[in-house]
Design brief:
This protein has 318 residues and is an alpha+beta fold. It is built from 9 helices and 12 strands. Helix 1 crosses helix 3. The protein binds (R)-mevalonate (MEV).
């Protein structure tokens, strides 16, 4: 039996704009998805998941089919088989500390942890770079469109500056960032929200492209502030980023309400995080950390989000 875990993430800056080549600043958070794996004698892939409940078995061919809740796991298993050049009967148990479909990177974390678990079971030693790239391919195939942001955070941990098509920088900064997440508990589809922004951009590129460009500019400035510990200014940039995401049409009344609740309670800044349309907001709350947690807790599921520097991890092998 092997256990592999991978962390979720919060996008600090740059969601959606990163799909169009702008950078994103993302932090892995200490809430993890765990995948336990063991070999089976039958030629099936059996998946037990806390989130979907129960057990499902798939033939090797069935891994490529269906639009069900397990599609990231199934595609990650078949991609690991392709990479290893062999297939094996396996059983997977999946448990998660991350709410699903909430913008906290649960799909990326389960994809990375599953790939690593299957490849380790098949004695394939892959680098983190390779793992991140395989996981990104899984997300691309399942979602149709995806930046490497979430899969990079789940693989490497820490705070990353993602430059689409040009690589990923792991920053030394971000330890102890006083972050708070507010979860609307409204599940949403990243795929549909990315498609919504794409339609808006196609219908009026001259209006939308400058918004995307501004998000890129403020993300680069946020990185500088993060490295210099300028938290007040990071908060201001979060507020601007939220305004621009609203302009792209991915906020909701509830998300923006929570953003204002956090700001009114004393947060240095707040914005939606992830694809929007539901899911979570992220607040930077240094001076009034407890007040912000309490104020959000009255309106939604509120939790502190600690940046973790531990990416994908082989926790134990019996
Ligand atoms: C989703 O967490 C972030 C988006 O930018 C999509 C992506 O980067 O693939 C909305």
């Amino acid at each position: 039996m092997l256990t592999v875990s991978a962390p979720g993430k919060v996008i600090l800056f740059g969601e959606h704009a990163v799909v169009y080549g702008e950078p994103a600043l993302v932090g892995a958070i200490e809430r993890r998805v765990r995948v336990r794996i063991r070999a089976l004698n039958q030629k099936v892939v059996r998946i037990r998941s806390d989130a979907t409940g129960g057990v499902k078995s798939f033939s090797f061919e069935e891994l490529e089919q269906g639009e069900d809740a397990l599609r990231y796991v199934k595609r990650a298993v078949s991609m690991a088989f392709e990479e290893a050049g062999e297939k094996a009967g396996i059983e997977l148990w999946i448990s998660s500390e991350l709410p699903p479909a909430s913008g906290l990177g649960s799909s990326a974390a389960v994809t990375v942890a599953t790939l690593k678990a299957v490849l380790t079971l098949l004695h394939e030693d892959v680098s983190r770079k390779k793992l991140a790239s395989l996981a990104h391919r899984v997300e691309l195939e399942v979602q149709g469109s995806a930046s490497p942001t979430d899969t990079a955070a789940a693989t490497y941990g820490g705070v990353l500056m993602v430059h689409p098509g040009r690589g990923i920088e792991r920053l030394g900064a971000g330890e102890g960032l006083p972050l708070v997440v507010g979860n609307t508990r409204k599940e949403r589809s990243t795929k549909l929200l990315v498609a919504k922004v794409r339609r808006l951009r196609e219908s009026m590129p001259e209006v939308v492209d400058p918004i995307i460009g501004s998000i890129g500019t403020l993300t680069r400035e946020a990185r500088r502030c993060l490295e210099n510990g300028e938290l007040e200014r990071i908060g201001e940039l979060m507020n601007i980023n939220h305004g621009l995401l609203e302009a792209l049409g991915v906020s909701t009344q509830e998300l923006s309400h929570l953003v204002y609740v956090a700001r009114s309670a004393g947060a240095e800044g707040a914005k939606l995080t992830g694809a929007g349309g539901g899911g979570c907001i992220l607040a930077l709350a240094r001076r009034k950390h407890e007040q912000v947690l309490r104020a959000l807790g009255r309106e939604c599921q509120a939790m502190p989000a600690e940046v973790t520097f531990e990416g994908v991890l082989l926790e134990d092998a019996e």
